[in-house]
Amino acid sequence: MPTMLLVTHGTDGDVLPFVRLGGELRAGGHEVTLITHAHYGPHAARAGLGFVPIDTATEFERTLADTHDLLDGLGWREFYERNGLYRQMELEFTAMAARYRAGETVLVGRHTSALSVLFAAEALGAPAAWVAVAPIQIMAERAALHAYRTLLDDGIGGVRRRLGLRPIEDWDAWFSSADLHIGLWPAWFDRAGTQSPGKVRLTGFPLPDENAEEALPPEAEEALSGPVAPVLVTGGTGRMLHRRFYDAAVEGARKAGRPVMLVVRHRDLVPDPLPPDMTWFPRLPFRAVMPRVAAVVHHGGIGTLSRALRAGVPQIILAHGVDRPDNAARLHRHHLAAWLPAPRWTPEEVAALVTSATGGDPLAAVPAGDAPGQDEGTQDGVRRAAELIAPLAVAPPDFPDEPGPAVQAARRQLERMSAAQRRAVAERLRGRLSGQEA
């Protein structure tokens, strides 16, 4: 049975598409293991996937709390060291190496961050796919590459030495060495901004990974059934947010005369005490909630905006940092959302946009001739991605008898290691994977 090993990092918008991807690959007859944060173990179990945690739940929350300064591009070296991210690379590599079966294994990683997938592909000669969840991951390749080979080169070089890999000589070629590059967004979204290079296969937005049986809490049902439809406010599941996001979003919705449903995992980001016309929930099944709200005020995360698009609900995006301004601008060019950059985050401006969106102003009216294609708007991008990845597990009839020079070099490198060296590396890393240093 072909084996699919999936590696990803981040929050819901980065991880849940990989859970769904694993489910689709499993349905196609593949054995699938997801390697990611401990927080997502229950999601993997529900999808029937094997699971390897790269951290503990406490470590995951601590790393999330440490992400804020990264919005300004500061402190990457210290962030990696503080949060043990080099150790995570080694654990991911070990987990893949332990499950690798020659000729039957495909490695799949989150674009840009899953360096361990490229390490393992290089060492094992296994096919690899990199999957991007937002266009900015493709657009920022050069910046990420610069950071890896300058700011983080010592740490990455140390990981490679401990794994028995040689230093990277041609970073550009190595960073593009995955056999398949996938973008989880539709072509119309791609055309609305800087377009992806031809090597990227676009599949469409993923359907949400949510438990269809999850019931609405009684308080949420009451809020949604009231005389005035509420505005949903959410900044996603991470903490990498501008400090004024929730103040501006909540006060703007309230000034527009709408009750507010606030959805955020972290209690310290919630107003205390809650205003009388506001309810707070750590999480809600957005599949059931979004079609019933008057509008969504959110941060511009790719998962949130694609859910809102499917629900047909007006979006007001307060976008700051990472992929969010680019995502917001792409929707705005299609008249599918209104958005504000951080300097314009005032309750009055947010209230004006909420009032306009909930008063019949057709935010979702797309200019004729420039509308997203119907198929692109409704197809499941994850299912299409699985269809592209699955054939990597089987060499096509015209596959060359001899492997390429990169694989040959990696195999020669492994052959130079003695059996004792290989056993020592494997035992040390297995010990770390189990939480006990060898």
UniProtKB/TrEMBL annotation:
InterPro entries: EryCIII-like_C, Glycosyltransferase_28, GlycoTrans_28_N, UDP_glucos_trans. One of its GO terms (biological process) is vancomycin biosynthetic process. It comes from Sphaerisporangium rubeum. Residues 273-365 form the Erythromycin biosynthesis protein CIII-like C-terminal domain. This is UDP:flavonoid glycosyltransferase YjiC (YdhE family). It comes from the Bacteria. Residues 394-438 are annotated as: Disordered. GO terms for molecular function: hexosyltransferase activity; UDP-glycosyltransferase activity. Residues 5-64 form the Glycosyltransferase family 28 N-terminal domain. Keywords: Transferase.
